[in-house]
Inverse folding.
């Protein structure tokens, strides 16, 4: 990754706080959920309940896709 790309990514992460994370359901189909996130550099963290479908999906299959969402005004 170039330094310029890293800077652009970090700027994007700093401007927003919502992302959509897609996990794999037991039947093989994706499950996409919007979650809040925080980041420490390029490491992104989000919370979810330990018994949630998302957590169960991740425990079974750690493959994910994520997209940073534009924040909406309340």
């Amino acid at each position: 990754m170039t330094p310029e790309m890293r800077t652009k990514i970090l700027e994007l992460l700093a401007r927003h706080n919502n992302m959509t994370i897609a996990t794999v359901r037991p039947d093989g189909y994706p499950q996409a959920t919007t979650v809040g996130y925080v980041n420490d550099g390029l490491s992104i963290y989000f919370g979810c309940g330990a018994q949630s479908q998302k957590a169960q999906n991740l425990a079974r299959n750690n493959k994910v896709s994520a997209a940073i969402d534009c924040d909406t005004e309340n």
